[in-house]
Amino acid sequence: MKTEENPIAEGQLEIYDGTDDLPFRCIKFSKAYITEFRETFDVLSGGEMTTYVQISPMEMTINKRLDIERRLFWLWNRTPQKPMQMQEVVADPDVHINDAYWINPNGEKCREFPIGEAVKLYLVLGNYNVGQTIQFDFEEETDEGVCHASCSGRTDDKGMVIIEDFELTKKE
User: Fold this and answer.
1) Which of 31, 71, 118, 134 has the most CB atoms in a 10 Å sphere around its CB?
2) Cβ distance 14 to 21 under 8 Å?
3) Cβ contacts of 20 within 8 Å, gap of 6 or more
């Protein structure tokens, strides 16, 4: 709050309705002067306490949604929103699969995939970026012919991609 060295106050008021732990209004202010402050406490009628704070801010944010600035003594303007800066992520073309498996009903990892049957595929990747969406094309030659499957998924923080309904089908 305000000190002799720094007469301009900044802070945040959180207003609660008395039933929830979450505030229903939050007012964050900066470059403000506290012009008046008083408290009243009425012991005779239920012990209610009222706090009155009058501030004269130059900048306010209401409920993290509305940013306003005072241009003149009575004129408020919305603060122009700054465009969001997104960091560019360059995908590495050398992403490789370290392991691919599915888990059978007995809880065992299986690395031979059934043809024409949907399984939950687990892929463990190397040289990946977290959150990167990767397209996979699988092709395998079997005694029954060439089998094919295409799918895509997003890598998690452990380098895994999980495909819910992975199915190898015969290529015609």
Assistant:
1) 134
2) no
3) none
Query: Cα separations (Å) of 29 from 3, 23, 35, 38, 74?
Result: 16, 16, 14, 19, 16
Report the C-alpha gap between 105 and 77 in whole angstroms. Answer: 63
pTM recorded for the entire structure: 0.48
Task: Kindly report the number of other CB atoms within 10 A of residue 11's CB atom.
Answer: 15
What pLDDT digit, counting tens, does each position of 16-43 carry?
877 777 778 888 878 777 778 888 888 7
pLDDT at 6: 57
Pair 12, 27: CB distance under 8 Å: yes
- Give the tens place of pLDDT for each residue, 50-108: 888 787 777 777 777 777 777 666 676 776 666 767 666 565 678 889 999 999 999 99
Report the C-alpha gap between 95 and 119 in whole angstroms: 23
What gap in Å lies between CA 94 and CA 128, rounded to an integer? 8
Q: Domain extents for the chain?
A: 9-78, 96-170
Instruction: For residue 124, give Cα distances in angstroms to 108, 131, 134, 146, 157.
Output: 16, 14, 12, 24, 11
Token pair listed for 22: 């979450």
Q: For tokens 């290529």, what's the residue?
A: 171
31: tokens are 């470059």
